[in-house]
Amino acid sequence: GRDHDRSEDGGHRKSTKLCTARFIPRKTPHHARKVTMIKKLLMDPARQVIERLGYDLTKKNYQGYGVDPYLDIQRIASRISYAVHNCFDIGANIGQTARIMEKYFPNASIYSFEPVEETFRKLDENISNSPRIRGFNMALSSSAGSAEIIQYSNSLVASLNAEAPYVVNYETEVTRAECQVGTVDRMIVELGIDAIDLLKIDTEGHDIEVLEGAADTLAASRCGFILVEFAALFSSASYKGTSLIDLGNLLDKTGYRFLCSYTDAIHLGDRPFQVSNALFLRKALVGEKPSAPEVV
User: Fold this and answer.
1) β-pair type (273-282, 256-267)
2) DSSP element (H, E) containing 172
3) Which long-range contacts (CB under 8 A, 24 or more apart) does 55-58 make?
4) HEC string of 91-158?
5) Which one, 218, 222, 231, 289, has least CB within 10 Å?
6) pLDDT tens per residue across span 123-159
7) Which tens digits make up the pLDDT trace of 200-210?
8) Measured between alpha carbons, how far is 143 from 74 in angstroms, rounded to an integer?
């Protein structure tokens, strides 16, 4: 407003300063419905544009289980008051999963294991500005030593297992190289950590062997969550060691409960199969009696 105002007698007087406080209406049920309606009106045009572009807009907290494993682990850990301090990323490739773990678990130290030397160099470069992530140029298996790593044109599918389902169907071997091999049990001692709160395993058909190398850790209940890849429901000659049943039987005996699965890809053709990950949780963290389900 103006600094001065004209009085009735033609003189000047100081104007009263305008009040800048906002009127905040009482939050009645009617007010809440009105706010919701306004938000909907503002969001609907944006939502329509997003949907026309082929996307779906969903708030993460309202997303159902079975979509994002790391979001699910974060939510479940919060529900059971379990802190995630140490993560093992086994089959790290160039650090894609390590960076996701870094985002979802801001207080965690992340240990990434990648056996292929060229791929490890890219991993090391990608995590160079992440002090909470440490890279190790090695494989993990059922016993320590050295082994032959089989490499393909797609660096994501390098494996110690020559019969991994994906490569048998879709890949041609490029080269082989010797790599250092350790075990989960040995690494947890060498690193001086008490437990692995999240053990992620993606080793293209070598996952059972990695779990066998974690036998002492699992038996001592020193692992919270396990996220492990599988390629089939039932074991067979083609999918030996890569089936959900094999993984479930092994982990059930060591005190872990299957929670959820996540499908990464479905491959069609003469021998169709899928690539998924299964999430397990240590039974003792929630007890034998299940809690009331969470509605999302």
Assistant:
1) antiparallel
2) none
3) none
4) CCCCCHHHHHHHHHCCCCEEEEECCCHHHHHHHHHHCCCCCCEEEECCEECCCCEEEEEEEECCHHHC
5) 289
6) 999 999 999 999 999 999 999 999 998 887 777 778 7
7) 999 988 999 99
8) 31
Q: Which DSSP state fits 159? A: B
Cα three-residue angle 222-225-226, rounded to 5 degrees: 100
Rounded-to-integer distance, Cα 249 and Cα 261, Å: 16
Give the pair of three-digit tokens for residue 88: 């093992």
Backbone φ, ψ for residue 61 (5° rounding)? -65, -20
pLDDT digits (tens, 9 = 90+) for 222-274: 999 999 999 888 877 666 667 899 999 999 999 999 999 999 988 887 777 78
**Largest Cα span, the chain:** 105
Closest to 17 measured CA to CA, from 35, 25, 5, 29: 5
What does the alpha-carbon distance between residue 65 and residue 12 come to, in Å, rounded to a whole number?
70
Which tokens hold the place of 161? 């297992």
Residue with tokens 């070598």: 206
- DSSP states of 211-233: HHTTHHHHHTT-EEEEEEEESBS
Report residue 130 as tokens.
Answer: 């992440």
**Amino acid identity, residue 32?**
A
Element (H, E) at 248: helix 244-253
Question: pTM of the entire structure?
Answer: 0.78
**What distance in Å separates the CA atoms of residue 99 and residue 84, rounded to the nearest whole number?**
15
Amino acid at residue number 184:
V
CB proximity list for 43: less than 8 A, separation 6 or greater: none
